[in-house]
Amino acid sequence: MKLIQNMIHQDVQSLEGTIYERKAARGIIMRGSEILLLYTKRYNDYSFPGGGVELDEDLIAGLHRELAEETGATQVQVIRELGYIDEYRPHYKPEYDLIHMLSYYYVCTIGESLGESRLEDYEISNGMTAVWIDIHEAIRHNRQVIANRESSMGFSVERETIVLELIAKELVNPTVRSV
Asked: Using CB atoms within 10 A as the burial measure, which of 65, 83, 104, 121 is most buried?
C-alpha cells in the first residue's frame, strides 16, 4: 500500500520513549460528491469511519467490524486501497510517551441504507454520529477548525483532512487527461 504521508505531531519532541503501536483501518464511502463520515461533537470535526484493529485481527476484517459498529453499514465491499498515513503523536495514557498510528484507508461500497450503529460508550459521550456530507463542506469545516486552533480540536483532524483533500483531488475531481 502506498504511503500518503508521514506525520509527526507538533507536540512530539522526540521519537524515543515508550511507544504504543496501533493499526487502524478506515473506510472511504462515496455517493457522488457526498462521503460517509463521522461527525464528533466533542471535537467539532469530521473523520472517517473505522478504527483500531485487534492484535489478532486482519485489517479488512477490522474494517468491516468498525464500519458496522460506527455506521451500521452492511454489505461492505473493499474496492481498492487508497494508502496509509504513518503518524506519531502524544499518547493520552501516562504509561506511554507516544502513539505510533498506522491508518490504512480503503475505498469501499456499502448497502443502500445504514443499519443501527453500535457505538462504544466513549463514542456516544463524545457525540459521534454517522453523516453523509458533501466532501468539500467537510474539508472546509475541518480546515476552519484547524485554522481556529479550537480548544476542543482532536489529534486526528489534520490527518483526516489530508486524506479528504486527496480523495477530493483523485476520486471526486480527477484530472482530465487529454488523449
From this structure: 104
